[in-house]
Design goal:
The complex is a heterotrimer of chains A (about 170), B (about 350) and C (about 450). Chain A has about 170 residues and is of the alpha+beta class. Chain A has 7 helices and 4 strands, in the order H-H-H-H-E-H-H-E-E-E-H. Chain A has a 4-stranded mixed β-sheet with strand order 2-1-3-4, with helices on one face. In chain A, helix 1 packs antiparallel against helix 2, helix 2 crosses helix 3 and helix 3 packs across helix 4. Chain A is elongated and about 50 Å long. Chain B has about 350 residues and is an alpha+beta fold. In chain B, the strands form 4 sheets. Chain B has a 5-stranded mixed β-sheet with strand order 2-1-5-3-4, with helices on both faces. Chain B starts with a strand and ends in a 5-residue tail after the last helix. Chain C is α/β, with parallel strands linked by helices and about 450 residues long. Chain C is globular. The chains are: A alpha+beta (about 170), B alpha+beta (about 350), C alpha/beta (about 450). Chains in contact: A-B, A-C, B-C. At the A-B interface, helix 4 of A face strand 8 of B.
């Protein structure tokens, strides 16, 4: 069964970025562009990668769909299920834990009324607990889209969530 | 040509031979078990770690031992190399550890598994494993999946040997299944359920060392040891047409490729591998489709299949016969006894 | 022992721009080297410097470079490993964010030395904003003629690209990184062949850490011999240390190798001592995978020698009483810390990051994590501690890549040095409830 990819098209700007990335690799090694293109696709199509999106990326790179599924499902930044507009990723590994990451996670869970791994009913926030993001000296921290929010305190978290709501923030890595 | 010793048995082998291949040239019980390596599939091996051996001396030139056990299937011999497999208790312990890991999430469903009796994991656990498991946590579970009408995937049994992926890459013209997800969640899948439809896809069943990929046309028809395996051939325009029929009376229950003592599909006379096509495997289920050559020489040594085949070859106890070899005193004593057709 | 080679200008506003970087001496080393030094002469200086890989393994960089195969007509690649993911390590991020041009200059210099005309910086996906900083620096370098065709009129061509990953610690392993760069799953390759012979696209490739490549700039500036005078013994030069945990002043510090550990932890110049005036309990000195040491062993070796920040001194005593410098991820824990819980976060991490290719790592690490969870939950037994020990020994050395060891070593070390704490968890779980940080174990 081939999935219909007709409805999925990169915008002109995104397609230009895609072509620029492809040009960085030898012409018989276009597959090298897969991960950067999946990032663009995820940002472009609602923050997650549907099978249709992945088939579309496969067609651009002229590779089998399974090669895209294999890669997309390997890397933790690719969402294979829909997520909220704003994906909150709180680090919980060693140094962040030592500096109170669990309090931060607790607070966000209570604040949003959801548990880790869940999305708020309004579809605004998804909360994830993630492993080390390389911000150990500024622990605890969370990543929202491309932004690192560091040295978190309860007050800081509250202010950030107010801001996210006011901006109706969509978290995107790129 | 490099000269090496494996468990004190000397052998001279061509440059570029792996330790495992060298051991297979010697034969017998010093051959490390291989669950993922498959000599007919390029880039196979290295994943399961059951074939690990201890390299006591790296080479004549550089006699230092290798610091860690090495995967014998992916390590080339060097002149003067000294390898220990079953004459190293440490190595056997390490292998028993690997076996425990492989069995940790494997279901205890041998009684309902079509692979039972010809399962490499059964052999491996019997010969190299320990009794019981120390894992008290729940096993991973997946829903079975159909790759079309002919192939069943039971992911619970998979040991992620990657052989089927390599078959799809190297034998078929478009791979549509692969390994998705990561770590202990890694699984063989088409991701969105797809049929694998290809003239040679059935060979994935033959290379699967466990009951993860089985023949849907044979499903629950019979225990394999109640069938009568015969070698047969037909003129086929897609493949070599040389197969093994697994019969019960006049009924052909299953068709497979012919396999050698290591469970690998044999070679044709021209040196190519005698893979068979899906027509031969799934469509030709009548005795009059085939020219029968005679009973198959079954060289598998699975514990369950013992004593059921007409001509069963058991593994030799090599080291005891060789000068200078030390008795290893592991479980093979029991295994061989049970497998010896004269010892019923 | 304050000696700064990499971070000497990190405090200057605007140092991330080409203009300011140049005003402060940037690209002078490159310009001089391209005109006056041969590629082999640069390799020779790096060899003389004694520089060791700063990613964690500490392999001599000059030697790694000299292994690079140079068959006729085959391209060679230099790939910078910016996939910094070892828990406790954040130095490369700091360096790239603050002084991106130092890495770019180092990449051009190293590519010239190795004869690479296309080079890649592979950066972890989570550092997207840092990738953007690097892209900007690279654009500036192209415009200034430091990149592209016929660089500074020398006939040397180089294209430099940034490639982002997408969340996988394993891609810090060099062959997994190359797989990922080829658009595949980050499964480490089975070696040999090594990347120096068959790396990216099957071509000879050198993979070096960010800090290693940045260090080439001061090495060429001062000469390998001068660089080798800095530091102590075979631990030459300076090292970036990522300090985190229960210290007063966490952050990235450039130290001269050989600095006493005690001074590093307690001096106001560095970590500034333990938070809240509490006592120190343990240190993980080189990133999550190196053995944790209790206070007495991190400050002094078993022979009573003061422990120094160097490859040799931290390694003194092997794994029985020593540890490793590793990536320089220095995590300090105060007296109230639960070692068992900290270990659990490490095991959870490695479980999450295992690629799943080989059986011991795929099956064993999750098992260890589950046993630790059971112990933390007060349901453990003494036999579980022995089982943990046995599982780690069955993973160590049995895997395709070093992730197996990285997961096994912390378990072994925690049990070796803190066994009574594990026993307290299983024999008297109620007593543990008071230990700080043991209040929560969901997810």
């Amino acid at each position: 069964m081939m999935t219909n990819t007709q409805d999925i098209q990169f915008s002109k700007e995104a397609m230009e970025k895609v072509q620029k990335i492809i040009s960085r690799y030898p012409s018989d090694r276009k597959k090298s562009a897969l991960i950067p293109i999946l990032h663009i696709a995820q940002a472009e199509f609602d923050g997650w990668l549907s099978p249709q999106t992945m088939d579309y990326v496969a067609s651009i790179l002229n590779i089998q769909s399974i090669e895209v599924y294999e890669v997309a499902s390997f890397y933790s930044m690719f969402n294979l299920e829909p997520v909220g507009n704003c994906l909150i990723e709180v680090c919980r590994t060693s140094s962040c834990w030592l500096c109170g990451a669990e309090d931060i996670i607790d607070h966000i869970e209570n604040k949003l009324g959801i548990s880790v791994g869940e999305t708020t009913p309004d579809g605004m926030f998804t909360l994830k607990a993630v492993e080390c993001l390389g911000s150990c000296g500024t622990a605890p921290m969370m990543q929202v889209g491309a932004d690192y929010h560091e040295n978190l305190t309860i007050e800081k978290v509250d202010n950030l969530f107010d801001q996210f709501r006011n901006e109706n923030k969509k978290s995107r890595y790129c | 040509m490099p000269k090496i010793t494996i468990d004190d048995i000397p052998i001279e082998v061509p440059e570029g031979t792996t330790i495992l291949q060298a051991a297979r040239m010697i034969g017998g019980d010093i051959v490390p078990p291989a669950m993922c390596y498959y000599s007919k599939l390029k880039t196979s091996g290295g994943y399961c770690r059951t074939c690990i051996v201890k390299v006591e001396q790296g080479s004549e030139k550089d006699p230092r031992p290798m610091p860690k056990p090495v995967a014998s299937c992916r390590t080339n011999v060097m002149d003067g190399m000294v390898v220990r497999n079953i004459t190293s208790q440490e190595n056997l312990e390490a292998r028993a550890g690997v076996v425990e890991f492989l069995l940790m999430n494997h279901p205890l469903d041998c009684p309902v598994c079509d692979q039972a009796g010809e399962c490499h994991l059964q052999d491996l656990s019997y010969e190299h494993g320990k009794e019981g498991t120390r894992n008290e946590f729940e096993r991973r579970e997946y829903e079975p999946m159909d790759f079309g009408d002919t192939i069943k995937l039971n992911m619970n049994r998979c040991i992620l040997c990657y052989r089927c992926v390599k078959v799809a890459d190297q034998l078929t013209d478009g791979r549509c299944h692969g390994v998705i997800n990561r770590g202990e969640h890694a699984e063989i899948s088409t991701y969105i359920e797809k049929a694998i439809d290809n003239d040679f896809s059935g060979n994935m069943i033959d290379v699967c060392p466990v009951g993860a990929l089985t023949d849907r046309t044979f499903r629950f028809k019979s225990r394999v040891w109640y069938t009568n395996p015969v070698d047969a051939h037909r003129d086929c325009d897609k493949c070599c047409g040389k197969v093994r029929l697994w019969n019960q009376g006049d009924e052909v229950l299953r068709v497979t490729a012919r396999k050698d003592q290591f469970g690998e599909v044999i070679d044709n006379e021209d040196g190519s591998t005698a893979w068979i096509c899906n027509d031969c495997r799934f469509e030709k289920k009548h005795l009059n489709d085939w020219v029968i050559e005679g009973p198959s020489d079954i060289s598998r040594h699975s514990v369950i299949s013992a004593n059921h085949y007409e001509s069963l070859r058991s593994i030799q106890k090599t080291t005891m016969k060789m000068m200078g070899a030390k008795p290893h005193g592991v479980k093979f004593e029991l295994g061989d006894g049970a497998l010896d057709p004269n010892n019923q | 022992m304050s000696k700064k080679l990499l971070l000497k200008n990190d405090h200057i506003p605007g140092i991330n721009t080409l203009a300011t970087y140049k005003e402060n001496g940037g690209y002078a080393v490159l310009t001089n080297a391209l005109k006056n030094l041969s590629p082999d002469a640069i390799v020779e200086e790096v060899k003389k410097s004694g520089l060791r890989g700063r990613g964690g393994a500490g392999f001599p960089t000059g030697m790694k470079w000299s292994f690079l195969a140079k068959p006729e007509g085959v391209p060679r690649y230099l790939v910078c490993n910016a996939d910094e993911s070892e828990p406790g390590t954040f130095k490369d991020r700091y360096l790239m964010e603050r002084i991106p041009h130092l890495l770019v200059e180092g990449m051009i210099l190293s590519s010239f030395a190795l004869g690479a005309n296309t080079s890649y910086i592979y950066i972890r996906g989570e550092y997207f904003y840092v990738a953007n900083i690097l892209e900007k620096a690279i654009d500036e370098a192209y415009q200034a003629g430091y990149l592209g065709k016929n660089i500074l009129g020398t006939g040397f061509n180089l294209d430099l690209y940034v490639q982002v990953g997408a969340g996988a610690y394993i891609c810090g392993e060099e062959t997994a990184l190359l797989e990922s760069l080829e658009g595949k799953r980050g499964n480490p390759r089975i070696k040999p062949p090594f990347p120096a012979v068959a790396g990216l696209y099957g071509c000879p490739t050198v993979v070096n850490n960010v800090e290693t490549i940045a260090a080439v700039v001061p090495i060429i500036e001062m000469g390998g011999e001068e660089y080798a005078k800095i530091g102590i013994g075979k631990s030459t030069g300076t090292k970036l240390i990522s300090a985190s945990g229960h210290i007063n002043k966490p952050g990235v510090y450039e130290i001269e190798l050989g600095l006493p550990v005690e001074e590093f932890i307690y001096s106001e110049e560095w970590c500034g001592g333990i938070r809240g005036g509490r006592k120190m309990k343990a240190v993980v000195a080189g990133g999550s995978s190196v053995p944790i040491l209790p206070t007495e062993l991190i400050l002094k070796t078993v022979n009573g020698e003061p422990r120094l920040m160097s490859y040799e001194s931290l390694g003194d005593g092997g794994f029985i009483s020593g540890t490793m410098l590793g990536s320089g991820g220095f995590i300090v824990m105060d007296e109230e810390t639960s070692i068992v819980k900290n270990l659990y976060t490490f095991s959870r991490f490695y479980h999450h990051e295992s690629c799943g290719q080989c059986s011991p790592c795929r099956e064993g690490i999750g098992w260890m994590e589950r046993i630790l969870e059971k112990i933390l939950d007060g349901r453990g037994t003494l036999a579980d501690i022995d089982l943990l020990w046995d599982i780690q020994s069955k993973i160590e050395g049995k895997t395709i890549c070093p992730l197996g060891e990285a997961a096994a070593w912390p378990v072994a070390a925690a049990i070796r040095h803190f066994r009574p704490e594990f026993e307290a968890y299983v024999t008297n779980p109620d007593s543990i409830k008071d230990i700080k940080h043991y209040y929560r174990l969901k997810n």
